[in-house]
C-alpha cells in the first residue's frame, strides 16, 4: 500500500494544475504558464461537465492526506486551501453556475485572454502577437460554446445581460485598436492579425444578436442564503453566517458614522459631515494630471513603508500606474490592481486608474473627478500599492507553494488592504483630518458593502435599492455607485471581504502582539504575509497555534 506523503501530494498538485491550465489556457497565461498561450478556454457543456467531475475526483483524493502524519506543515496549509477552492468551485457549478447564466463572463474572458498577451512583456512582441492571432481565431469557437451553455438555463439576470452588451461595445473598441494600432507593429503578421481580429469582431456581433433574439433576461442573480453561507464557512473559513455578517455590517455603519461626525466637527463645527466631505472631494488634481499624481503618491507610499519599517518589500517587484483599459471601465469606476503573474520572474503589477470620460456630460465628468480627490488618492494608492495589494501579492508569489501562489481568500487580500489604510494613518502617513475623514468615509462604504452583499445575494434587495444605499449612506456618486453594484452581483461574499477581513486580521494581530510584545511591526507583518493569501483562521493557526 502506497503511503501518501509530501511527494505524492506534490504530484497531485502538479496534475491538478496542469489539467486546469489545459482546460482554461487563459488562467495559465495569467499565472505565467505559457505552454497554452496559443489556445483558448474550452467551455462546451461536455468540457465543463468533465471539468466538474475532475474537481470532484480531486477533492475526494485529498481525503487520503487528511490524517497523514508524513505531510509537512506547508503542505497541510496547501491542503486546506485547495480543499476550500475545490469545494467552492464544485458548489458554484451546482448552484451559481455563471457559465449557464452570465453572458458578460464570456466577453470579459474573450477580451482579457487576448489583452493579457499585449500587457505583459514576458516574451518578444512577435511571439506574443503570434499567440494573439491564434487566440483571436479561437474566439468564434469559444462564443459558440458560450451560446450552448446559455441555452441550458431558462433565463439569465438582466443586469448581467445588460453588462454583456456594454462589454461587447468595449470589446469591439479593443479589437479595433488591435486592427489600427497593434497591426502596425506586427510586421509580417499584420495581415494575419487583421484577419484574426476581423473574425473575432464578427463573433462578437453574432453573440450580441444571439443575446437579443434568444436570451430571456428575467433571471435572478442571487446565489441564495445557503450558498452564501457555504462560501463563508467552507472557503473563507469564517466563524459566522450571513445573518451575523449583516449584523456586523450594520453595526459598523453606525460606529463609522459616529466617528465621521467627530472628525468632521473638528474640521468645521458649523457644517454637517457630508458638506465637509463634498468640499474635500472638490480638491482633486486636474483630470489631465491624474496619472502623474497617482504615480507620485505611490512612490511616496513605497518610501514611507521602507523608512518606517512597515513590512519587507520583495525583490524584483515594480508597480506601474496606467489608465484602466477602456474595456474594464464599465466595471471599475475608480481604480484597481492587476497582479503580476505568480510564475514569472518579472513581478510588475499594474495599478489601473479610471480616467475622467471626456465623452460624457460635464456634470458626470465632475462626479467622476470628485471620486479622485487628493485625499482619496492618498488612501487608494496605499490600498492598491504599498503596503496594500501589490506588496502582499508579490510577497505571496515568493512562496515555494504553487497552490498559495495561485489561490487565496479575498477576505485576507481585501482585508489586508483595508487594514493597511488605518494602520498607515496610525503610523503617521495620513496626518491631516481631511484624509482621515475620507478614510472613514471609505470604511463606511465597505460597511455598506456588507449589508448590500448579503441583501443582494440572499434575495433581500435589488440593484436599485443597493445603489441607493451607496449614494445615501456611503455618499458615492450615483454614476459610480451603479457601476459598483454591477460587480457586486457577480461575486457573492467578495464585497464583504474588505471589512470582514480587516476585523479578522486586526483581531489576529492583537492576539499575536499579546503573545509577542517585543515583536516589531515589520516582524509581525512579515510573519502574517509569509503564508500567502490564506483564510485568516489558517494564518491564526500558524501564528498562534490555534484558531483565534
Give a written overview of the molecule.
This protein has 548 residues and is mainly alpha-helical. The protein folds into two domains: 6-214, no CATH class; 233-544, no CATH class. The chain has helices spanning 6-23, 25-31, 45-62, 73-96, 98-101, 103-119, 125-150, 158-180, 190-214, 225-235, 242-267, 273-281, 290-307, 362-370, 374-384, 389-396, 402-406, 410-426, 433-457, 463-472, 478-488, 497-515, 521-529, 536-544, and strands at residues 317-323, 335-338, 347-353. It has a three-stranded mixed beta sheet. Helix 1 packs across helix 2, helix 11 (242-267) runs antiparallel to helix 19 (433-457) and helix 20 packs across helix 21 (478-488). The protein is globular and about 65 Å long. The two termini are 38 Å apart.
Topology:
Elements: H1 6-23, H2 25-31, H3 45-62, H4 73-96, H5 98-101, H6 103-119, H7 125-150, H8 158-180, H9 190-214, H10 225-235, H11 242-267, H12 273-281, H13 290-307, E1 317-323, E2 335-338, E3 347-353, H14 362-370, H15 374-384, H16 389-396, H17 402-406, H18 410-426, H19 433-457, H20 463-472, H21 478-488, H22 497-515, H23 521-529, H24 536-544
Which class do the helix and strand fractions yield?
mainly alpha
CA radius of gyration: 23 Å
The proportion of strand residues reads under 5%
Molecular shape: globular
User: How many domains, in number, for the residues?
Assistant: 2
Q: Give the strand order of the largest sheet, numbering strands 1, 2, ... along the chain.
A: 1-3-2
Which H/E pattern describes the elements? HHHHHHHHHHHHHEEEHHHHHHHHHHH
How much helix, percentage-wise, in residues?
55-70%
Overall average residue pLDDT: 93
The strand count comes to 3
- Major pleated sheet: 3 strands, mixed
Amino acid at each position: 500500500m502506497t503511503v501518501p506523503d509530501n511527494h505524492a501530494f506534490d504530484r497531485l498538485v502538479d496534475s491538478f494544475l496542469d489539467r486546469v491550465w489545459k482546460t482554461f489556457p487563459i488562467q495559465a497565461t495569467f499565472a505565467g504558464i505559457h505552454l497554452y498561450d496559443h489556445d483558448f478556454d474550452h467551455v462546451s457543456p461536455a468540457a465543463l461537465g468533465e471539468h466538474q467531475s475532475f474537481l470532484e475526483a480531486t477533492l475526494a483524493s485529498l481525503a487520503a492526506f487528511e490524517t497523514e502524519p508524513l505531510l509537512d506543515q506547508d503542505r497541510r496549509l496547501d491542503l486546506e486551501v485547495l480543499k476550500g477552492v475545490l469545494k467552492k468551485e464544485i458548489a458554484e457549478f451546482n448552484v451559481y453556475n455563471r457559465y449557464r447564466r452570465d453572458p458578460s463572463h464570456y466577453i470579459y474572458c474573450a477580451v482579457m485572454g487576448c489583452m493579457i498577451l499585449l500587457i505583459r512583456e514576458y516574451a518578444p512582441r512577435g511571439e506574443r502577437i503570434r499567440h494573439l492571432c491564434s487566440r483571436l481565431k479561437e474566439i468564434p469557437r469559444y462564443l459558440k460554446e458560450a451560446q450552448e451553455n446559455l441555452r441550458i438555463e431558462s433565463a439569465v439576470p438582466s443586469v448581467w445581460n445588460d453588462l454583456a452588451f456594454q462589454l461587447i461595445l468595449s470589446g469591439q473598441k479593443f479589437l479595433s485598436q488591435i486592427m489600427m494600432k497593434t497591426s502596425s507593429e506586427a510586421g509580417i503578421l499584420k495581415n494575419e492579425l487583421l484577419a484574426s481580429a476581423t473574425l473575432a469582431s464578427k463573433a462578437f456581433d453574432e453573440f450580441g444578436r444571439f443575446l437579443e433574439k434568444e436570451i430571456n433576461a428575467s433571471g435572478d442573480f442571487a446565489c441564495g442564503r445557503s450558498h452564501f453561507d457555504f462560501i463563508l464557512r467552507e472557503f473563507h473559513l469564517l466563524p459566522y453566517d450571513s445573518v451575523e455578517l449583516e449584523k456586523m455590517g450594520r453595526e459598523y455603519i453606525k460606529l463609522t458614522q459616529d466617528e465621521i461626525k467627530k472628525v468632521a466637527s473638528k474640521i468645521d463645527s458649523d457644517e454637517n459631515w457630508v458638506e465637509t466631505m463634498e468640499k474635500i472631494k472638490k480638491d482633486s488634481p486636474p483630470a489631465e494630471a491624474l496619472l502623474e499624481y497617482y504615480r507620485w503618491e505611490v512612490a511616496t507610499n513605497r518610501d514611507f513603508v521602507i523608512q518606517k519599517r512597515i513590512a519587507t518589500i520583495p525583490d524584483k517587484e515594480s508597480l506601474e500606474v496606467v489608465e484602466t483599459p477602456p474595456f474594464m471601465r464599465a466595471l471599475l469606476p475608480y481604480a484597481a490592481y492587476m497582479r503580476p503573474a505568480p510564475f514569472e520572474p518579472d513581478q510588475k503589477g499594474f495599478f489601473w486608474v479610471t480616467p475622467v470620460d471626456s465623452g460624457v456630460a460635464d456634470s458626470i465628468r465632475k462626479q467622476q473627478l470628485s471620486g479622485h480627490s487628493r485625499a482619496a488618492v492618498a488612501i487608494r494608492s496605499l490600498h492598491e500599492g504599498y503596503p496594500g495589494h501589490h506588496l502582499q501579492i508579490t510577497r505571496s508569489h515568493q512562496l515555494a507553494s504553487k497552490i498559495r501562489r495561485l489561490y487565496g481568500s479575498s477576505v485576507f487580500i481585501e482585508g489586508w488592504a483595508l487594514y493597511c489604510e488605518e494602520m498607515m494613518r496610525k503610523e503617521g502617513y495620513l496626518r491631516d483630518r481631511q484624509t482621515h475623514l475620507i478614510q472613514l468615509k471609505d470604511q463606511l462604504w465597505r460597511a455598506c458593502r456588507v449589508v448590500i452583499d448579503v441583501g443582494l445575494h440572499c434575495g433581500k434587495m435589488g440593484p436599485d435599492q443597493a445603489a441607493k444605499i451607496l449614494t445615501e449612506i456611503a455618499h458615492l456618486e450615483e454614476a459610480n455607485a451603479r457601476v459598483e453594484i454591477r460587480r457586486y452581483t457577480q461575486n457573492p461574499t467578495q464585497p464583504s471581504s474588505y471589512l470582514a477581513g480587516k476585523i479578522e486580521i486586526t483581531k489576529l494581530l492583537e492576539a499575536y502582539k499579546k503573545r509577542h510584545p517585543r515583536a516589531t511591526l515589520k516582524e509581525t507583518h512579515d510573519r502574517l504575509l509569509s503564508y500567502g493569501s490564506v483564510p485568516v483562521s489558517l494564518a491564526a493557526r500558524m501564528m498562534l497555534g490555534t484558531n483565534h
